[in-house]
Amino acid sequence: MTEAILLVGGKGTRLRPLTVHTPKPMVPAAGVPFLTHQLARARAAGVEHIVLATSYLAEVFEPYFGDGSALGLHLEYVTEEEPLGTGGAIRNVASRLHSAPGDPVLIFNGDILTGLDIAALVDTHRTTGADVSLHLTKVADPRAFGLVPTDETGRVTAFLEKPQTPEEIVTDQINAGAYVFDRSVIDTIPAGRPVSVERETFPGLLESGAHLQGMVDSTYWLDLGTPQAFVRGSADLVLGRAPSPAVPGRCGDRLIMETADVAPDAKITGGSSVGPRARVGAGARIDGSAVLEGAVVEPGARVRDSLIGAGARIGARTVLEGAVIGDGARIGADNELRDGIRVWCGAEIPEASVRFSSDQ
Q: Which residue range or ranges hold the Nucleotidyl transferase domain (predicted)?
C-alpha cells in the first residue's frame, strides 16, 4: 500500500465557529492540526503518496504541509470547483494516482479520529479479493447511523438507512469512514457531478454483484463533527486513549506547547492542551479543554470541556463549561457560560453580563 486519498473538502458547518477561518481538518487537536495525526498514522502504516481532495478554504492546506516531505510523504492537492460529494471527490482526484487497475487505494475522511489498523484493512482487502473493503465499527446506539450488515464471512449484504424503529436495527455495525478501493473501481464513479459513495456508489456496486468486504475494527473511533466531540478527541489524543505518532510530546494529563506561558499555580488536567503563545494566568483551572494559539485565560478562570479559539481572551474568574469560543472573541471577567454555548469569532461579552446560557 503506497497510495491514499484523503477527503478534506467539507465546510465543517456543525463545527462553527471553529471553522469560520479554518477548514475542519486544520483545527488544532492536541497541539497540531488534526490532519497531521491522520497523515502521520497513514505514513506509519506504509502509505507514501497521498492526494488531498480539497474544497472549502483549500488555500490553507498546501502552505502548511507543502509537498509532505517533512512527514516522509509525497502530498498532492486537488481542489473541487463545485462540491462533488464523497464519491465525486474521489473520482475528481483519480488522475493523480499512480496505481495499476488492480492495486488497492486507501480512502479516508478528514474528520474521523480512529485507532484503525490500516494495514489489517488492506490485508483483508487483498486476501478476500474484494472490489471495495470498508472499515466497520460497532456502536451502542446505531440509530444515528446508516447500518452495514455482513454475512458470516464479512461480506457486506446491504446498506441500510438510519433505522426509524427498533425492528429496523438489524446490526450494530456502521460505516466508519475508511475504505480500500481497487483502483479500477474508482474509474467507474461518474465524473463531473456530485456522487455520494454511501448512497450511490456502494449500493450500486452491491446491486451489480461486486464484492464489498467489511472489516470490523472496534478500537477507538470518534466522528469529530461537533465541537463537543472535537474537544473530546483532542483530550483523548493528549491522554493517549486515541493513538497518534504526531502528538508533540509525551501523552499524559496535559500538553503545553513550548512557547505557551502558564502560571506555576494554574492547574491543567484531563488531557487539556495549551497552544503556542497562549497564556494561562495564576490560579486558573483548565480541565479536558483546548486553548488554541495566542489565546489568553486570565487569573482565576475555570474552563472545563471547552475550546478557546486562537487569539481569544477569557476574563478573570469567568467560568466556561462545554463552551466554544471563536477566534479573537473577548469574554469579560466574572461571566458564566455553559451547556454548549458558542461565542462567534470576534464577539465581545462585557464583564459580569452572562451568568448562564443553555445550548444554542
A: 4-236
